[in-house]
Amino acid sequence: AAAAAPLIAATAADAPRRIRIGFLGCSHSHALPKLKLALSSPDWECLGVTEPTDRFRAVAEKLGAKLLPQDELLAKSEVIAVECDAKDRHALARAALLAGRHVHIEKPPTVTLPEFRELLSLARDKRVLLQMGYMWRFNPGINAALEAARQGWLGDVFFVRGVINTNLSGAARKECAEIAGGTMYELGCHLVDPMVRLLGKHAKVTPVLRHDAPAEDNLADNCVAVFDFKRAIGIVSTATMQPVAGAHRTFEIQGTNGLALVRPLEQPMLALDLAKAAGPYKKGNQVITFPPYQRYGPEFAELAACVRSGKPLTVTPEEDELVHEALLKASGLH
Question: Rounded to an integer, what distance in angstroms lies between the CA atom of residue 79 and that of residue 96?
Answer without folding.
Answer: 9
